[in-house]
Amino acid sequence: MINGFVFHAEKDADGNYISNNADATTFYEVMKLFKEYENTEGKFIDINRDFKSKLFETFTKQERTKENAGKYFTPLKIVKGMVDMVDIKEGDEICDPACGVGKFLLEAALKIDEPFTFKNGHVVKKIKLYGYEKEMDEKGSTSGYDLTTILAKANTMIYFSSLFKENNTLANIKTISQELLNETYYSSKTILGTLERIDGKQYDVILANPPYYQSALISQTARDTEYYTERGLGVEGLFLEWIIKSLKPNGIANIVLPDGIFTNIGNKRLHEFIITNCYIEAIISLPINTFFNTPKKTYIMTLRKKQDVSRKQDYPVFAYYCATIGETLDVYRFDIDDNDFQTAITKYNLFRSCKDKNKLEPYLKPIFESDPKLKLLQIDSFAEHSAWDIEKRWTDEEKVKMGVKKADVTMDLDEFGDYLKEVVADINNYGEAVKCLKS
Asked: Which residues contact residue 240 at a Cβ distance below 8 angstroms, ignoring those fewer than 6 apart?
């Protein structure tokens, strides 16, 4: 299964398959249940795409460690929401420079009716997808094959399984695999990977959750090239510059970024580069643990590249403070009703549909003004470096009213003295309990 990865099994001396890990055993048990279903209910073929995709993610997340699996997955709700925030039209060229298992590209393709068909022996593409990943780690070692690209291709087969099913001769399968899989995903065997160059290829839409961490080797190697002039900090700063320079004029980028992009004074030059070259359409604050493999605070930034860099943005930035994303913020990702993120997407799409974003339509004003988690921030305020940290735009009092911060509790000296007595009494009681346990 997927080049023997994840659900790997070997044969024993008698030729029987044996499992080397729990994932393979579990997968086998699930397959048996599916087979039992088919025996009583008929062929198990008309399966919801989201179910198949979720099953694929669930098994792959079990591989090795959460940290390892996390690099492959952006929660599906975040992916779909970010795709909903942008328009996709026929003829668009869509890129993810750190594509993982390809979810951004695949969800974007679904916004087009029949994005890929097979005619006259070739795949007809209404849009073009470009997913880039790298195989080599910072120490220069590789796995011998690009696991992430294999997973992306497998995921693409899940999304467009009907294309393979309806054209299932060996020659057709080879052609579809080449023209849909191999010509969508590209794997680099260099330390810089995607960042190795900015080759002038420009895209209509870029959707990305690039890696964010500090790497002196990658940063210095990238700066030794001619491409990175803005001195953005961390790998995410390099990716952000790559993305902006790789957008077509009037192209849209929707990017997940860590808080360092917004808060670190070392990114002031990068901020100026953004303001000069792009319109900032939106910044959405996501809750901590939105991505299960990192506790970092993250944001979604939506940028539209200017056609004329001399033009100044003349409308506000849509800002939203999300406390929930519609699922639990743990590895299990159970669905919940609370979903600030979906509210943010809905209201952003209303905002971007306005003819005059400075003067909202009358029906929108009460919808926007009644939501304490939404602010429209004037672009002039972003001239100050600290203003890029949009969470500071909400006061502590506002955060308490929104339920994202507990109210501060103040005590006078007498109350504080009584509180300390209670703490001391509790400690003494615990001490007595420990003595009892020992005896």
From this structure: 210, 232, 255, 257, 261, 270, 274
